[in-house]
């Protein structure tokens, strides 16, 4: 029998709140974190809006020297990890350090230092580059730095699968515990790509919303007038533990992780497979892993990017996989409030899924005004819904055709 894995700690840094309580309060109230970009001058940019993390002070989590030196995605990861550890009540010591691991993904990593280094190289020459350019640019440094900062010496890894990175990271951590290679894992994703290069690159791909004069209504997943996603930033980190270990230390248990599935589209570098066929196979794999039937799922936390193809094909995938039960599902997209946090988004959304189970509440999809005939599910429009949620599914799909699905269940002994 497989080892049971539970969630005992939650850490969030997001455009709608820092810490699980502020995050959930804003999410369940339908508060929007999208506004005009303040991190750089957007004068000549087609898109000038984003979901920035507000009121983030790295000095709350790092000493002054590190707070000045570390790049933003690493700062977010450390902050969210500390929040998750504090929330869990787990103390890492010499006695258990080898049994606690870290898997933190990032879609892009330290794009801010890459960007500044390129200008330094051009303007001042190679001898003026910072020695920290490579260490802070590479995506695995969030996982590396978190393990150093908290003293976790167990399995350590980084998953890079674009917008599915956070979800894959949690799934891999779940499997690491399940097979007995660790007793606890800090897992999730971190991203900070609201930079000139980051935003301009997505603009060039024509992926972003240009609703610059109305940022509060720019992200509108599954709605007829959607016209692109809104880039966001942040981090989501969970502490996963083996059930026996969690019970032995009398930890509070938020929910149980019961399934993980993934697949590849083998179709296109950015467009989903027609009909969401790849997503369907990932859902099948997750439910097989959990040994449950589709009818047992109550709520789907959708990838829901607010792009024409993603929302259409994700809807088709849900309808194909769940059949008649799709009409009974509550389906919603947090990106309507947070924007798309890229490699962090799946982790933050899995935290939202866990809190949905804890609170028996499906958060809303805000900005849902005009229904799209091709997106015809129950998207929990504009207001949260109190409802029994025993099992929740969280979907993530990334450029390159990476699909990842997680399932969580209300904990019962």
TrEMBL record:
It comes from the Bacteria. It comes from candidate division WOR-1 bacterium RIFOXYC2_FULL_41_25. Pfam families: ketoacyl-synt (PF00109), Ketoacyl-synt_C (PF02801). Residues 2-410 form the Ketosynthase family 3 (KS3) domain. GO terms for biological process: fatty acid biosynthetic process. The active site is at residue 163. Involved in the type II fatty acid elongation cycle. Catalyzes the elongation of a wide range of acyl-ACP by the addition of two carbons from malonyl-ACP to an acyl acceptor. Can efficiently catalyze the conversion of palmitoleoyl-ACP (cis-hexadec-9-enoyl-ACP) to cis-vaccenoyl-ACP (cis-octadec-11-enoyl-ACP), an essential step in the thermal regulation of fatty acid composition. Keywords: Acyltransferase, Fatty acid biosynthesis, Fatty acid metabolism, Lipid biosynthesis, Lipid metabolism, Transferase. GO terms for molecular function: 3-oxoacyl-[acyl-carrier-protein] synthase activity. This is 3-oxoacyl-[acyl-carrier-protein] synthase 2. Signal peptide: none annotated. It catalyses: a fatty acyl-[ACP] + malonyl-[ACP] + H(+) = a 3-oxoacyl-[ACP] + holo-[ACP] + CO2; (9Z)-hexadecenoyl-[ACP] + malonyl-[ACP] + H(+) = 3-oxo-(11Z)-octadecenoyl-[ACP] + holo-[ACP] + CO2. Gene3D superfamilies: 3.40.47.10. The keyword Transferase applies. GO terms for cellular component: cytosol. Pathway: Lipid metabolism; fatty acid biosynthesis. Its EC number is 2.3.1.179. SMART domains: PKS_KS.
């Amino acid at each position: 029998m497989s080892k049971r894995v539970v969630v005992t700690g939650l850490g969030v840094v997001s455009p709608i709140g820092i810490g699980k309580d502020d995050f959930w309060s804003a999410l369940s109230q339908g508060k929007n974190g999208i506004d005009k970009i303040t991190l750089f001058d957007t004068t000549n940019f087609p898109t000038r809006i984003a979901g920035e993390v507000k009121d983030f002070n790295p000095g709350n989590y790092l000493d002054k020297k590190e707070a000045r030196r570390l790049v933003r995605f690493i700062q977010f990861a450390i902050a969210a990890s500390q929040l998750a550890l504090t929330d869990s009540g787990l103390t890492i010591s010499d006695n258990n350090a080898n049994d606690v691991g870290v898997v933190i993904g990032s879609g892009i990593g330290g794009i801010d230092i890459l960007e500044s280094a390129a200008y330094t190289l051009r303007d001042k020459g190679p001898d003026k580059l910072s020695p920290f350019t490579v260490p802070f640019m590479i995506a695995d440094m969030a996982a590396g730095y978190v393990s150093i900062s908290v003293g976790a010496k167990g399995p350590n890894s980084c998953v890079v699968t674009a917008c599915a990175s956070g979800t894959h990271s949690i799934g891999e951590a779940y499997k690491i515990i399940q097979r007995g290679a660790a007793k606890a894992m800090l897992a999730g994703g971190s991203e900070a790509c609201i930079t000139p290069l980051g935003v301009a690159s997505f603009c060039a791909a024509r992926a972003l919303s240009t609703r610059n004069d109305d940022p509060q209504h720019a992200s509108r997943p599954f709605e007829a007038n959607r016209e692109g996603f809104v880039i966001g930033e942040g981090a989501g980190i969970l502490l996963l533990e083996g059930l026996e270990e969690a019970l032995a230390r009398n930890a509070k248990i938020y929910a149980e992780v019961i399934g993980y599935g993934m697949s590849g589209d083998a179709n296109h570098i950015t467009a989903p497979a027609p009909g969401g066929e790849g997503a369907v196979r990932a859902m099948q794999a997750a439910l097989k892993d959990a040994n449950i039937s589709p009818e047992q799922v109550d709520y789907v936390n959708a990838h829901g990017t607010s792009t024409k193809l993603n929302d259409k094909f994700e809807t088709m995938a849900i309808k194909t996989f769940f059949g008649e039960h799709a009409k009974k599902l509550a389906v919603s997209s947090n990106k309507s409030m947070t924007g798309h946090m890229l490699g962090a988004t799946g982790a933050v959304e899995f935290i939202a899924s866990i809190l949905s189970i804890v609170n028996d509440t499906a958060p809303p999809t805000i900005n849902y005004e005009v229904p799209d005939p091709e997106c015809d599910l129950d998207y929990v429009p504009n207001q949260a819904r109190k409802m029994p949620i025993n099992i929740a599914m969280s979907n993530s799909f990334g450029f390159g055709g990476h699909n990842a699905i997680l399932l969580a269940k209300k904990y019962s002994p």
